[in-house]
Amino acid sequence: MMDFSPRGVYVAGVNQSIVILLGPPGSGKGTVSERLRAEGYTHVSTGDILRAAVKAGRPEGLEAESYMKRGELVPDEVMIRIIRQAFSSGKDMSRCLLDGFPRTVPQAERLEQMLADLGRSVARVVFLECPEDALVVRLSGRRICRQCGAGYHVQFIPPRKADVCDTCGGELYQRADDREETIRNRLGVYNRQTECLVAWYEKKALLVRIDGRNTPDRVAGDVLAVLAKAR
Ligand code: AP5
Question: Of the residues 29, 51, 124, 138, which is catalytic?
Answer without folding.
Answer: 29
